Amino acid sequence: MPPTMEQANSNLQTTQCRRFKRQNQWSNLHTRGENDGPQRQKQDVLLAGTDAPLARRIKCDESKPFCRRCLSLGRTCKYISTNGLIDESEVVIPLEQPLHVSPRPKGVDSNPRETQIFDLLRTLTVHQLIGPFGQTYQAFWTVDALLATQAYPAIWHASLALSAMHHRMRLGKSEADQLLAKQYYTFSLTQYNISIRHLVDLTSKAHLSYFDKETVLFASILYVGICCAQRNTKDTKQAIAHIQNMLPLFYRWKFWELSPTSPGSSHTGRLHHDTLVQIIQYLEYQFDEFSDNFPGGLSRDLDRASTEPFKSVAEAYVEYVPLHYGTWICGGCPHPRRDDELQVRPFRDVKLDYARRLRSWKMRFRTLERRAEFERQDLHSIRLLRLLCDFEDIPRALYKEPKTETYWRHQHKFERLVDEAEALLQEAEGVMDLDTSSPVFSYSVNVCSVLRPLGIFCCNLRVRRRVIALLKRYPQRDLIWDGTLHTMFLEARVELEQGSLMRPVKEDDGVCGCVDAMFVCRFHRCSGGYNFLEAGGVEYTLRTGLDREQNKPGTVIRVTWD
Fold first, then answer.
1. DSSP letter (8 states) at residue 527
2. Do the Cβ atoms of 543 and 554 come closer than 8 Å?
3. Domains of the chain: which residue ranges?
């Protein structure tokens, strides 16, 4: 079981203590157990008049910006903060778990601060990057990714940057948290730039080996995570740019065909090849959905799908991902693939193949569900896959028959899906040892992948407001889809659609079929599009059916970050 956020944060903040006047006293701290507490002389303790830890005669241990003893009581420590005056490069960090080998790549120097962040990476960050489908990605993140940090300098620095930014994302808004967040940001930005320089040197070679290609692609994956973890629209735009730079290389090298396990292959990379391809596939689908492109990898991934019974939840999830994002083809995805080199089959053939693969997946998934020997984590993953699978039927039906009767038939499904999503979010805290009140970030599909489109497809005002409340209560990041940002836009969409009911439809245009708080007709229903601003921020343009027919610009909502 990975350590909790409180344990990792407490270990990290203990380094801020200024009460040890000699360097060798830090080594004494290493030799004691985690719960022994600091053993100071009376004259070394300065309480500064604080009365926060007086309850039950527990004294403040002065480990600002968090006091371990105050934190254990659930109290707010009022001891005067050190305001980050310690030179962090001179502090020796007590590690959560002892390291028996050097974590850094050969020839790369590291300081105590980097060792500390690496400890945070291996004991906390990688376990949260796994996401709700732990069996699929656990070995990749907890073993392969850590081994890659020891082999490739670009991966070493990028991993440290991601770990620091991921931890910064989960900090609160208190003064102490904001001080620590600035330190994490500075460290992450420094490591990110160093990693970029290593990658530039690597790609300047005349010939790239399999190891080099593996490094470039995995570093790009980490860069996307670094940008997404910053929770800023300007950095989301940068994350999309990293995906745009990575995908042409992925297709130019035909990396999915370079499997080390294929007969006669001489490739022996540090990372599991198929899992690396799956994560790239996930990023590609997200980018295509965000950019409203045809999912170019869909045809390839449908051809790779098996017809054999699923042996594990991991197999079911891997085959499900292209089916989830392939739902867009049911709506006649309007834009072609951006790469002319990729030969996509006729749209009708892909659509028929998609329907056949989806039926096959559902049959094999029902067989997998009947197995009784699942562990707790797998049961949670099974329930999430069931939720995702049940949701797929809704957009397919609405795309096929966008009539009032179709929406009425699915009203009970909307409510049932929201109930199940809420139950899964409540269960996630215990299953994955996560604090669901803090933002959640991983490289896999999560509950937000259902709630986000559900709030768009559903017309019932009460259900939509429940979706908005859940997204606010459980902030999750669906990779490049920011949950907080999407919640703001969803609220604006709901208010605009409800307000547009006051605008009558002319008889020449048609007949309005809206039902107050229950159904929005095609004239008043909104569609939206994103536009990133150069100065930072994002514009969200909402246009009703009437706006489109009358060629009106619609309503523009602008969101900026400080």
1. E
2. yes
3. 5-109, 372-479, 503-559
